[in-house]
Design a protein that fits this description.
- Helices cover 15% and strands 35% of the residues.
- The chain is of the alpha+beta class.
- The chain has two domains: 125 residues, Cyclophilin; 122 residues, Cyclophilin (Beta Barrel), CATH 2.40.100.
- Strands 1-2-10-7-8-4-3-11 form an eight-stranded antiparallel barrel.
- The longest helix is centred in the N-terminal third of the chain and has 20 residues.
Length: 326
């Protein structure tokens, strides 16, 4: 009788375990992360994608092949031809092997650890980064992202080779702790908005006898402005009253400040020089006293200051700039 009771109890426990596993097929971890392969040249790295809406939307594009561009000696990035859902947070420290989304359309794979002040959406992490730095090399590199079961699928989504953008180191091998960044169970539709499709705005040369003026602190500087929609929209913002922007130093080569709204943008990969004024991510204005390579929309160039003059104006601490129409 005792043996029969034990057998019944064992059978009951087995049934309970089996039922608990049924919704997900095979028993799966509670966070339901996804394992993928990333082919870089002749080497394949296994990676874990977190269970969040960004990763789920990206997985729908798999298998995905991208030519990734180099930035700052610590990352490879690719601007996608579509936007993904975001859950941006200040991550403070990037670990080698992190896979992130910058903005809503820039996929970034980091191969060096470093501190950062930028906001990213976490996508996943390469499980073992040994050999990653050597595999990615110093320039552009092709990466192919596949689910493990999709290795032989020939229908790979091919992103175009056009490159536009990114940001901000010893190699660190990191084993990821997979903690979902986003516990939402429903996937919102990915908006297929083209940030370049905006209502036309009068370009500055169409506003008779009007010109944008800029002051850095108390010093007025001369600017040669571009003739594009972005500058026209900026002029419209300032036509009734001057626009004051609190800037912050970044990277030892620029000051950046928020406009508080989005302007039309036509980003392209740009290497800046001292005195350049650009629009970043559609809603931030950047003034340079050094060089950087990123995806920007050009706004203008300060013409009456050389490198030393720009450094004196911008490298001593955060400043306020004032833009007005005169």
């Amino acid at each position: 009788m005792k043996k029969q009771s034990k057998s019944l109890l064992g059978l009951l426990i087995g049934v309970i375990v089996l039922i608990g596993c049924m919704p997900a097929g095979p028993c799966m971890a509670k966070n339901n992360s996804t394992q993928i392969n990333i082919e870089i040249g002749k080497k394949t790295f296994k990676a874990t994608l977190y269970n969040n809406k960004t990763s789920r939307a990206l997985l729908k594009k798999f298998p995905l092949s991208c030519k990734m561009s180099e930035l700052n000696g610590n990352e490879k990035y690719k601007y996608l031809s579509y936007e993904l859902p975001t859950n941006k947070k200040k991550v403070k420290r990037i670990k080698a092997g992190d896979i992130m989304l910058y903005g809503s359309d820039c996929l970034v794979v980091f191969y060096k650890s470093h501190k950062t002040s930028y906001e990213y959406t976490k996508v996943g992490h390469i499980n073992n980064t040994r050999g990653l730095k050597k595999a990615v090399g110093k320039g552009k590199v092709k990466m192919k992202f596949t689910r493990i079961r999709e290795q032989s699928n020939p229908n790979t989504t091919q992103e175009s080779d056009s490159t536009e953008m990114p940001k901000p180191s010893p190699d660190v091998t990191v084993q990821p702790t997979v903690t979902p960044d986003d516990t939402e169970n429903t996937l919102k539709p990915v908006e297929d908005e083209n940030p370049n499709e905006t209502n036309p705005t009068t370009a500055p040369n169409q506003q008779a006898n009007k010109k944008l003026m800029i002051k850095i602190g108390d010093k007025k500087v001369d600017v040669s402005w571009e003739e594009n929609e972005s500058v026209g929209a900026l002029m419209d913002m300032c036509k009734d009253s001057p626009l004051e922007i609190q800037m912050s130093m970044y990277g030892g080569f620029e000051q950046v400040g928020s406009l508080g709204t989005n302007l039309p943008r036509n980003d392209s990969q740009t290497t800046t020089s001292s005195g350049d004024i650009v629009l970043y991510s559609g809603n931030q204005i950047v003034v340079f006293y050094g060089r950087n390579s990123w995806s920007y929309t050009r706004l203008g160039h300060i013409t009456d200051q050389d490198h030393e003059g720009m450094a004196e104006l911008l490298s001593q601490g955060d400043v306020t700039i004032t833009i007005s129409v005169e």
